Fold each of these.
Amino acid sequence: TPQYETKDTDILAAFRVTPQPGVPPEEAGAAVAAESSTGTWTTVWTDGLTSLDRYKGRCYHIEPVAGEENQYICYVAYPLDLFEEGSVTNMFTSIVGNVFGFKALRALRLEDLRIPTSYTKTFQGPPHGIQVERDKLNKYGRPLLGCTIKPKLGLSAKNYGRAVYECLRGGLDFTKDDENVNSQPFMRWRDRFLFCAEALYKAQT
């Protein structure tokens, strides 16, 4: 939609697009905009039950990437009503969750994102700031030091707690779980919690 004028309330995304051979950049840009908003692979009867034109993403500008063959920056505008207030997860799932395996594209990368102020104000943010963290830890006048327990997977809950104890006794202020750690069979969440609570208590005494 090259004639589309962006609104202050639109979320704007810049995608680096490499179309498949024979696919024009305009078609690739339109496909990205559609697939990441209201589009689907075929026409369905329920399309007539809503105003797709109101909600669809629009590829409003395309420019070639300097020095790169068959690469383009496609700028896409999304109406704010497509996104749940206060949900980073919903925003990114909508914009990038379904487009990277699109057949019209050989490669795709999200390069930039402009989020309107009205949308950022819907995010709750942290419940308190660094001063409260320092008050809870009773640590002032220096950086807070922490680490991620390694190896990230494979430790028993007891050995995980032992590692936490050694870190805290060694002078660290906190430890954290790796993103891969959840409640696996070798280290259930409740067991890990109990051993870590014991480690924390011992390290403080």
Amino acid sequence: MNKNFIVLHIIVVLTLLICSNGSRADSEYYADLSIPLVEEISLNLDKKFDGYHGKIVKQILDQYPDKISFNLTSPKHAYEAFYKGRYSCVTPDSKSYYDLPNDFVDSTALSSVDWVIVQRKGTKPILSKKDLIGLSVGSFYAPEEIASIVPQEGVVYDVIPNHSTILRKVAARRNDIAILPQVGLTKLIAKREELKDLTFEISPKIATVAEAIMCHDTKRGREIIKLVNQGLKAINKKQP
């Protein structure tokens, strides 16, 4: 077979593969903004934007009905798909959660959240991250997703995407403590009899994080950050 023909054939095949992969990547881009269905967004997890963070997100999105696409979805899907580049942005989140190198950029902060230690009444207070070493800890998020809050070594993490189950395992002594955002915990603990022995008032809060709309540092991500920041300025101007 002629060598020139072989070279030409290889070039054509590679070109087709590149085009194929490019169109596949485009088809796997779900939307601009990934929004996990958590209480910060929707108080009753019913897709209403009535959580303290969700109210602000809704005011921003209402200003750009045709400029920012979004999906409300499960927390696991929302964050995993964002990390894989299926979405340009995710909220609530913050670059400050991550210690590892990343390409993330934050908008101006929309809200802030206290992270607390939930434990059984009568147990010793946890006064520093060092006190977590050797414990089994229930968490909604994988430790690498909240690396600035929790130790990455020396702790056994039980990651469960359900707050009630996390708390029940602490109450049943299957985990020592849980580390969670404070949002909704008082209500959740009060309405379940099996959780009555739990409290988050023994230990000081472990962190307070200003949460934003966090995007990949790409052209589209930066465009969305610009729109979000402009939207926040407009909201703040309207407030007395």
Amino acid sequence: MVEGDDVGQPADHGRAGEHADVAESGDAGDVGPGGGGVGQFLVALVFGEVVSQFPLAGGLYQWVRRLWNGRYAWFNAWIYICTITIGITSTALFSSDFLASLFAGTADAPGISSTPTQRLWIAIGMTVVCLICNCFGTRTLALISKIGLAAELIGIVLVGLYLLIFERHNSFSIFFQTSSSNHDNYLIAFIAASLVGLFLFYGFEACGEIAEEVPNPSRSIPRAMQLTVAVGGVAALFAFVGYALAAPDLASILSGKDTNPIPSILQSSLGSVGTKAVLAVIVTSFIAGVMSQQAAASRIVFSFARDDMFPGSRVFSKISRKRRVPMNALLAVNVVPVLIFVFVYFSPDSLTRIVSFQVLAGYAAFMMVVLAALRMRLKGWRPAGAWSLGRWGFVVNVAALVYGVLGMVLLALPTGGSGTSFVDQWITLVGFLVVSAVGLVYLLTMKPDRKSTAPEGDAMEVAERLRRRAAALESTTGGNPA
């Protein structure tokens, strides 16, 4: 069940960045998806070892608490909750153009760019529908996630393969050009394409948020994370290559004249009926993406509250007896997205900045886990879950940390031209620092970490207990634990 829970998410983020990657083209553009996929797979491997030993609801928060301490875990959870909350927002908002194109697109104008009003109501509708579905429990989430996975495979991989084989309007040489039409400096183009790779492979960690709700999580969750990145990588590759080669007017996309190019590419290749069918599949994957992020955010708020480290802990630590869903937490995590929908309505240009902050904050939360795992390894920790990297664990951990730190540097780089204000150029970093500062002030003044008596920093002790238990079980079964 878990293996489908979040597979749709990387492609949803990828679809938001696909236009940018096609616009980069050339060598630089071709590097983005591959580099991001390999790096995030390393992170997924590190997460897999941690969650295999600690298959607990709350994911990142619980992992870093057991790897370091409560204070470090609180700050990580603060950053991550903000990240996933913005993730719900951006995924719902980015779905608006596809929904508008599905219902209002014509043969002459297949791609519809939604108006601010349309975007507002579509995003609210998407969020409410996904919230209602999530209220029915994990089984409903798993079912829709599986449908979303199938939608991704059909709408991206199969269609991308069809476009690649039968509908090529451009040659493969566009991937090997040494310059970018949007940048004078090739280094800038390479950096921009790398950023797209960072956007594409993001969301796999949410598989671990429902670890207490699935069977055999120590084995199934690590496998689900790796599958999520792998499927997202294949989908992103086929989407990028297939759509780029099938674009009937690549110049319009590169120049920014065609702001919603995917429906136009589909219309020229598949006709009206085929375009509508693929758009319906894409919308389905967006629904799965929003649902998975709602589930992830609600579980970490619930886990946070269960340890008495979140404002209103008594309210948010409750679970619905019938559905076994943290209903109060689920409702709460959708309040901020709706407020941001309204903000974006009055300031449409803010969406890109919001998404940039989301990805930087997400990578920061990831690297806090990777750093905590590396620190514990240096102190002697050997992961004792059912899934392990063995002797390769340390090397993979270091490589994942290097990748993540470099990714954060790229994401924090200034954007915009010479006429852009200082704040606008550095808005991603400024936003991240502001959110971090607010969290740190609350942490240092209110000291919420002192309210909790939950275990912390005990990764080595737990690992030793698990090994002793496994050894005892093996001795009583004659060397055959099964």
Amino acid sequence: MNQGSYVLLLIIIAISISVIVSIITLSIDLMLTKSDRVIEKIKPDQTLNDIVNGTITDKIIDEINTLAKQD
């Protein structure tokens, strides 16, 4: 394998890890009650930008931590 193949493989692995983390955080969010769901509190107009920039999981984790501190 040449260097290009390794770079492509690393990119595929990075994207896969990002998707898996997103699925896990969204699954945790869906386990919460409807009023506590983070997905309900995130503004829809910013969601697409957050997904593209990779910050959606950070926002979900921050909101879950905020909810946990309130309890």
